[in-house]
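With this grant's support, we have settled on a layout for protein records. An illustrative entry appears below exactly as we store it:
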Amino acid sequence: MSTTPLSGYRIVDMTTVVAGPYATQIIADLGADVIKVEGPEGDLMRGAGKGKNHRDMAPIYLTINRNKRSVALDLKREESKEVMRRLIASADAFVTNVRPDGLARLGFDYEGVRAARSDIVYVHLVGFGSGGCYAGRQAYDDLVQAASGMADLLPRANRGGEPAFLPTLVADKTTGLHAVYGLLAALLQRERTGEGQLVEVPMLESMVSFTLVEHLYGHIHTPPTGQWGYTRVLTPNRRPFETKDAYIAIMPYTDKHWPLFFEVAGRAEAWDRWRNASIEDRTEHVDELYGMISEVTRDKTTAEWMELLNAHNIPCMAVNTLDSLPEDPHLKDVGFFQPSEHPTEGSYRNLRHPITFSAADTPLRRHPPRLGADGREVLGELGYDVGEMDALFDSGSAHEPDGD
């Protein structure tokens, strides 16, 4: 018996780009049989960058589509829709980020999918919740960073400047994580009640919730008792500190850490004016405090600081670059970067699932599939014979990998 947590569950994955595939990869890593249903053109991320051996196997696609099977169907054709309905009937959940109007036209909105399986868990990642005036609009990471207030954070931290996007797909990935817990909660509820349901996961609401955990701040009260934005996080001097040879992150946090840092740094007198300050006072003036740290860190190398601060249990970490991450000793210890051999793309670097379980595994069971690579296998499981499969592929209703 498999020791993966979600072994035995089947998920029909009709998602593209990042948010949906990132969510369904997590579910696949946990052991579910995730069947990725794509159109003849494939997921957009298959072409986002240069594939090593095939155009449909670009880098980001490889990063978020392991442990899945791919079936390529032209859902404008009735024969393909019938395949999809049979696939849904065999599944526990249906996950999609296609816009509502498109799903309704295809017949795979919630009511259409529930007609194929009445207790289905239907997870719909949308840009904006269906109850609001933005419902149905296109949504991409940049748009949601803009609308959620995320693009306002860097100007606040820099004391001015233009709105700016964080250089990571934070809205997509955060929404994907919300989708994972929504799916798992709905599956658990179905175990208890026997009922499926529609789970709507809106990007904007997810990101506003994510952003305002700390940045609602004084505006949690009515009337407000303070500013928007958590002071410590938005201060300009909250940044890696320059050392003699590189950079380091240092995080004095408690009443003990702050004076101890300046003591071990040989600048005990720098803390004199703050010895009787409350945490509220330190929070209000944290930019000045961080500036004081930056004045002393250039005296030593990063390695010297790490040894000194670790010896006194003061929180610190050396600053990795993207280039240095694969050589990080901790990531090496835990085997985070896993050298893998793809059957068609050759050697590649697989990122291990980050969570570990004491009584379960999350192994690499399947490499990211080429477009339609598992069509015949899945169709056979649905009861199609060889002749019926050939007819579907010959008609263009289903597609297999090409040689490019």
Remarks:
- The longest strand covers residues 33-38.
- The two ends are 38 Å apart (CA to CA).
- The chain has 17 helices and twelve strands.
- The longest helix spans residues 170-193.
